[in-house]
Amino acid sequence: MLDRNGFDNWAGNYDETINKSSEGYPFEGYYDVLGYVQNSIETSEEIWILDLGIGTGSLTNELYKNGVNIVGVDFSKKMIEEANKKMPKGTFICYDFNENLPSEITNRKFDYIISSYAIHHVDDERKLELINHLSNTLKNNGKIIIADIAFENMEHLELVKTETGQWDEDEYYIVADKFISRLDDLGFYASYRQISKCGGVLEIRRKI
What is the per-residue pLDDT for 102? Predict the structure, then answer.
């Protein structure tokens, strides 16, 4: 798994690499996944969005063009620099979300908290802890949307793992049926949509 320096070194040609790798595991359907999220979000100048693991801003750039307010967090300074080029009026925080959340986040309220192809770097226990903490920064009826390498169930994961002949054992992919059950226990409504063979979108709301 790449560390901060690895992502810094990747930042300059990250978008180009994804363009060339959008077929097969792990990035199959990458732009379809991002497009699904973009179409799920209301856009106006009153909307505030937190993008956790913003990378080069591929997901939020299209939303930014429609006038929403973007706060982006990433542990790679170089990735943030690339995102800032696309979204000069955005707010960016260089921070590792595997640690406690910074005050710049916890002191705000967001309409949407989104994350694309980033949260698979932390295990399920940390994912659940992070979602629980992040939910406290949502406005009423706010939503958390996670777009990532993900699977409907373990049978689906094992099938793709066998078909690909390659696998990153250092990453932690969402298995939707089990993960949604855990979210339900924590007081969340969640739904999942499989977009590609190995990419999906999880939408989460706090139960009232």
Answer: 85
